[in-house]
Amino acid sequence: MGLFDLEEHFAFYGAYHRNPVNILLHTLFVWPIFFTGLILFHFTPPLYDLSHIGFVPSAFLDQGYVLNFGFLFALFYGLFYMCLDKKSGSFAALLCLACWVGASSVAMRLGFSLAWKVY
């Protein structure tokens, strides 16, 4: 099975998820699970400190958008989807980016102890 072969992924998914209830559950809950995972990854230490670069606006950093494991996780999935298919993968990558931004914003507002309860 090729890692970036979209047809093989769909064939595997179709063979594994034939039950309509299972398909509905995956459709409804995959993105919320990804979002809440990003909320928890927000509290990992930054992989790189952006404050020394200078071209990143301080408002961006003050909002909690840091290059941590949450960003890396969203970037990995976004690039993976783009490698599978350019058009729909680009949309999925955009959703991954939106989830990272939203999860970072929610995590900053909630704090760790309350974010853990949301998760």
TrEMBL record:
<keyword id="KW-1133">Transmembrane helix</keyword>
<feature type="transmembrane region" description="Helical">
    <location>
        <begin position="91"/>
        <end position="116"/>
    </location>
</feature>
<protein>
    <recommendedName>
        <fullName>DUF962 domain-containing protein</fullName>
    </recommendedName>
</protein>
<dbReference type="GO" id="GO:0005783">
    <property type="term" value="C:endoplasmic reticulum"/>
</dbReference>
<keyword id="KW-0812">Transmembrane</keyword>
<dbReference type="GO" id="GO:0016020">
    <property type="term" value="C:membrane"/>
</dbReference>
<keyword id="KW-0472">Membrane</keyword>
<dbReference type="Pfam" id="PF06127">
    <property type="entry name" value="Mpo1-like"/>
</dbReference>
<feature type="transmembrane region" description="Helical">
    <location>
        <begin position="21"/>
        <end position="44"/>
    </location>
</feature>
<dbReference type="InterPro" id="IPR009305">
    <property type="entry name" value="Mpo1-like"/>
</dbReference>
<dbReference type="GO" id="GO:0046521">
    <property type="term" value="P:sphingoid catabolic process"/>
</dbReference>
<feature type="transmembrane region" description="Helical">
    <location>
        <begin position="64"/>
        <end position="84"/>
    </location>
</feature>
